[in-house]
Write a structure and sequence with these properties.
Keywords: Cell membrane, Membrane, Transmembrane, Transmembrane helix, Transport. The protein has 101 residues and is mainly alpha-helical. It has four helices and no strands. Helix 2 packs antiparallel against helix 3 and helix 3 packs antiparallel against helix 4.
Length: 101
């Protein structure tokens, strides 16, 4: 018996499992939001914001797969590109000010 068979016997679908995973990622994002606000150093804040962006991409991808809506994946891809550009911009800004991340 596979895991998928056991889940169907228990009354759960794959979409339910993906929604549960998305909920767990939202919980992790809330913890990272605390670190982004209260981080003791700028490096902690930058890393937390980057992890928040990555969590958002994963949550959007999970929701797209669970709900069967492919446009969620398009939004996740655009958000991933914006997250990368934000990381580069913050790094460049910090280095130009004389600090090193």
């Amino acid at each position: 018996m596979s895991v998928a068979d056991a889940a169907l016997i228990a009354g759960y679908t794959v979409g339910d499992g993906l929604l549960i995973a998305a909920t767990l990622f939202v919980t992790l994002a809330i913890a990272m939001l605390y670190r982004a606000i209260m981080g003791p150093t700028n490096q902690d804040r930058v890393l937390a914001v980057n992890v928040l962006g990555t969590n958002t991409v994963v949550i959007l991808a999970l929701l797209g797969a669970a709900l069967g809506e492919p446009w969620f994946l398009d939004i996740a891809l655009v958000y991933a590109l914006l997250n990368f550009l934000m990381s580069v911009a913050i790094s460049k800004f910090t280095v130009e000010r004389g600090g090193v991340i």
